[in-house]
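Each lists sequence, tokenised fold; shown next:
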Amino acid sequence: MNIADKSVLMQASNGSRTFLLHSADALLADRLDRALASLGVVISRAGDVADLIREVGLLGPDAVLLAFDTPDQQIAHHAAKQLAELYPSLALIGVGNPTESAMHAALKAGVAEFIDIGNLAEAATIASDTLNNYDGQSRQTGCPMIALVGARQGMGTSSISAELALRIKAHLGDQEVLLMDCGAPVRDCSLYLGVEPDLDMLGAIQNIARFDQVMMKTAFARHERNLAILPLPAQALDRADIATTEALRLFRILRSYFKAVVVDLGCAPDPQLAQHLIRNASLVLLVCEQGISGLKTSLEYLGQLESGGIGTGGWRAVINRHVDERTVSAAHLAHRLGLPIAATLPYDAVALNDAQSLGKPLPAQNRWARAVDALALKLLDEIGLKPVNPQPDKLAHRLSRLFVRSDAS
């Protein structure tokens, strides 16, 4: 059964919490919304467990309310087990009449608390205490993930993602780094790096039971600098076979194996999958090329995400193809976007196109590559990863500056 088209969504006068109730019972949703009004809002969704998991990824609720009244006990039990695996830091609260059967089912499912719908005067206290216990827990599971998004094709998201992943890998030495090639055109990152992956996301999902350290080191396509790459399937029909639930499980496993993950989501062909990744990312960078066209498209994109319930307040902007002499400055673009600038990358189309035509990264001394390298170091610091032996890079940079001065004199 598909997600219900109509949801019960009543804005509370106080509180900012979001509770997602998995039930088609509009009366129950109304009663719970009133009981929890001091904390926030209750959003009701009906559907199967896969639908519920998709909604959790899209809405990012503070807690999920699961109905354990007969005949919903088995569905609630299955939902609780799935959510506990995919979102271990998400509060799960059972609701229903406290019969022996319902309480036993809730206990077996592993929910944190149970709200008696016959005594809703205690509901707010129970929910508040449960949320307080979960507030100290990090929502991030596994390694840091950096997502790069672009409002349309041609912003340069794939180029930046590929180079950024290479630079992060260079700074982390032997530690494993994964580039997820999930943008459009499909497999652009792989193309730019001169790699033709055999294993794609669908294949990884189909072999998920076999994942171990050996498979991680042998099955993934590798750039010559040992960066692991996992793309979307090349064929649209194969991409359609990727279930969101299975994709989320795969991401969780991958983040337990790698030290850092970079995801290219530039004009992603699967918006729903992209939204899940955005919600779970440690950092999100919006790539916007300098100019009014890029600004307009990016503003529309941000507006669509905000209206869909995805907050963008913590995002950063990467201004690409920057030229100092242009009227629309990087500062103006960032101000209009309402995002701080993470990096400003210079316009160097000729060098970049030549390198990508050969499937090679830009030379380290190239000014665009240097700007991406500076961004990589900045992001590593923000996500708490320490570069391995950074001194040689600094020395090389000082020497390159010395040689530039000698040539100029």
